[in-house]
């Protein structure tokens, strides 16, 4: 089952490491840590409380420091950088790929950035500055300028000789790019094609010019979509004049996809996907209090609705007992619709062309839920309070609130999106405000009219 | 901003397509659809209501049918298969890769499966049967048996001649695998290495034997973790005797990562990640009513707590107005902790070794929230109801409930995990039950003791 998410290896490493740390013998810890890949070390550091994290970070081989920094979230990265001298940081990051360095550089102290730039040769410095000139979360920022290009008017044999002369290729090179004299992107050649064709085959017979290049200003999400849609391992990045600027590889795309998804899951709880499991208490508190404060405001709004019906509750105290059910069930049902909508919006599957159909579908589902859940709630209320009219009121109020919930579940995320706000962040708070307010209003309002009328 | 998830291209295609469909002229629709990649067509079909989906599906080129079926969720796949004759299905799927076919085959009618098996040659049929013999969501089910192997006791030149003779390589081949006479996995050679080394270089100088192979029974999640940790494009799959069985490629891993993440986001609302945006109303209803029914049960549980305090509420009706605030804020704060824990568990970052530290951190954050939010709620209550003792009661109850919420946020997902239940699915329901029950109990209980005592 996909649900039984087991990461036995990580958990085992963590336990071993924890035992070794507790015993105070750092030799075994060092040996254990340095058998791991940088990504594994990053994952391990994220799962350690600050004190142990500092100890383990000090034991990581200096040559892995840079790659580890690339593989941890922003919060943890900051805590690791805080433990390093400027010299150590410069040594750690100077050998990173340009795209990884660009990702790190804004988290570094200004003095360190100057040192890093000074330690680079002119070509790499210019490349880094070019990458940094693009907005965060665009293709330009994700690309690595280090690409292997060839001309179309040559043969497999010549290219093979060139590659042998050149030596190692950049990581994840699965295609060479064919460019014009002016460095315009013309197409790509699979390494596979070079290996499976005779030496005298003209290169222009092997060029695939059907795959689109990525525009340097396209958003990271659009980049991820294209990689998924075309099953790419790498893709060329071009500017408006079709000049080849660099190359994006699947490893960066996997990070984008993971972040998008974490964003929906954590965003719904008002959290950032870079949140550190062990962030210092004052910082964790500052981040959470904002979202909780907003929720408190909406809770008072819902309470003020209840406040309007104090006279009614004073007459029938059972209403106070039952009202959380009406409001809560609306919230639950609305959250289901919201979750589907947020995913649909993120995948570009929901828009003006199908919102009516969706709303109509969700209203029908809500009506069926209303009949089923309204009946159950009504019967349970009848049995509990021996009052058929109260049962009728709660059943009707529940059905009404489920209809409100379905409408809000469809319309709130769409409206937020149209206002350029993030449905994954603000959707839940607004939705539950609607379902609380409308739930209390429907239930207590109907009770006032029917039971006290 | 990562938040501004824009998929302009998909949305534009959808609008164009929708307009063309509404105009009833199917020629333009057909042309539009068949400029898209199978994944894009799949995405488009998922965003169409059933009637339009049927029309568009009928216009897709028959040769793309199989790939499109691979790229849609289970629900949509079922609706598309329902539109096809057995012959059409056989024609659509018979050219798929073994791993894709294995993924599809269980959704096919039995008669069709027989036909498909009959249409395959013996080698491919045996390969499919082998893949199907492994459990779903294991490496064995994800692998493609089509791999290119070489011996270690040869040279680059010989391998290049072999590859030219062989012709096309399987998709996403970035390494050849070196095997023994008994087909045991010995290591891998990068295509890059073949291209950048002289023809007379012995193969055994190029073999990378440091990368671990994937065990055929490892879970899909473990496979995804290893791909992330090692930045793999493809990886070999071996059995217990280290015999090479096949190869897993990054495109399947991207699907796993996407599913894991959707599972957390949709699972929290009691939904399955394969849920179709436009699933038929009766089916959508049947799926949702179960989760809502469970939530209704827990809502009655919380209400029964309120029911114990009807006498108290009868005396002080303001309690009914304020009690949803105490319960609701506990739910919000607990949900934040839960979301962090569910992600941490999915990444293997949370376990017995750090739960104490985490709980202590979250209790301190909750205490700070309690002081801040408790004061605000207390002051607001004082201003609203002019009752300092009521203000004190709600402030204290709020603080208590935030502490309960933090404890439940840490302990509920861990306990579920230890019971082999999925924290992403059941965590939210149990957490809000705890925060509702404890919130009502703390607030109404303190009120009874202090205000009526």
Automatic annotation (TrEMBL), chains A, B:
It comes from the Bacteria. GO terms for cellular component: plasma membrane. GO terms for molecular function: magnesium ion transmembrane transporter activity; metal ion binding. Coiled coil: none annotated. It is found in: Cell membrane; Membrane. Pfam families: CBS, MgtE, MgtE_N. Residues 143-206, 207-266 form the CBS domain. The chain crosses the membrane at residues 289-310, 316-342, 363-385, 391-412, 424-452. It is a multi-pass membrane protein. InterPro entries: CBS_dom (IPR000644), CBS_dom_sf (IPR046342), Mg_transptr_MgtE_intracell_dom (IPR006668), MgtE_N_sf (IPR038076), MgtE_transporter (IPR006669), SLC41_membr_dom (IPR006667), SLC41_membr_dom_sf (IPR036739). The keyword Magnesium applies. Keywords: CBS domain, Cell membrane, Magnesium, Membrane, Metal-binding, Transmembrane, Transmembrane helix, Transport. NCBIfam families: mgtE. Homodimer. Belongs to the SLC41A transporter family. Acts as a magnesium transporter. PANTHER family: MAGNESIUM TRANSPORTER MGTE. This is Magnesium transporter MgtE. The lineage of its organism: Bacteria, Pseudomonadati, Pseudomonadota, Gammaproteobacteria, Lysobacterales.
